[in-house]
Amino acid sequence: MDFSLGEELEAVRDLAREIFTDRATPERLREVETSPTRVDESLWADLAAAGLLGAVLPEEDGGAGLGMAGLAVLLAEQGRRVAPVPLWPALVGALAVAAHGTARQRADLLPALADGEGRATLALEEFGPADPLTPRTTAVPDGPQDGPHWRLTGTKAVVPAPSGARHVLVTAATTTGPGLFLVASDAHGATWEHAETTSHDLSAHLTLDGAPGEPVGTPGDGAVAALVRDSSVALAALQVGVAEGDLQYAADHLRERHQFGRPLATFQAVQHQLADCYIDIEAMRVTLWQAVDALAEPFDTGGADRAALVAKWWATEGGLNTVHRVQHVHGGIGVDTDYPVHRHFLWGKQIATTLGGAGADLERLGALLTSGKVAS
User: Fold this and answer.
1) How confident is the model at residue 323 (pLDDT cuts 50, 70, 90)?
2) I need a labelling partner for 267 at 20 to 30 A (CA). Which of 89, 203, 329, 335 fits?
3) Average pLDDT over residues 310-321
4) What is the dihedral of CA 17, 92, 230, 14, to 10 degrees?
5) Residue 3 pLDDT grade (very low, low, confident, very high; cuts 50, 70, 90)
6) What is the pTM of this model?
7) CA 294 to each of CA 68, 225, 300: distance values in angstroms, whole numbers, following the listed order
């Protein structure tokens, strides 16, 4: 299987790398970390102006049609620089609307996202040991069962990047299965409680008390499963970039730092640590692109589910291993907040717990393999 990038994806990678390198400097990151929103809106506008936000959208919605492959490339470059912009929730949500939304929903949301003027976020997680595929938040029709108006009740935890989000894509249980609903961020019955995350981003807990929402697709039609699957792959892509950027910091530091008259990079014990990081990152990269390739198969959702969970597990396990090792080989400077490597550690930890940790990923994968829906 050939996972080399084509010309279009290479162009996205190169342009994104240039923008993130120029804009997401350590000085700028420190500035954003102390801002009220923790989002670099200037960088977001730059990404929109460069056409990178719209690149992942379907061509019929004004995008370049690069889909999850384009998003994976973009997220990996973001992770390298730990750039504080809400790419994964906004763009995964946009792809869900493009795939399952009505013509009106697509027209209302997608052009504004591509222009950088509006975005949505995702409300997938809940408190407690909740599987994102089986939400406890409920939705009941406010009128005919197949009508456009529903009422949602429940609490969603750690909604990413609520600042600047005009809408929230909320998963909720219905009598016909889990459904995906579009809720205005300022809807009546929606209450926000802001909370800081491990990575210094601001998230929020969203409490819904009969808040109005409209379905994206038909409840029970698989839109929730597809959104969770896409989110898992997006997080894996982001973690690949975080780990790659972290390893580069380690390599540079060990080449420059001397002990006993020679560079630390020449010590065998240190070389073994970095070799283990390299192996983990390669496994993360291979499983990520296997998942992206599986998502492109229109009639193989079972294989896509399995590949997404494998990629997510590797991102969680391998990503955590990498950021721990890199911090270790830096010694005391690894935990110094004046040195940028600590941000990769915090991002790696945050990503590894989003949508559940490695144990939850293995549990879901085991349930899938024993369900008979996909061959092992």
Assistant:
1) very high
2) 335
3) 96
4) -10
5) low
6) 0.94
7) 11, 15, 7
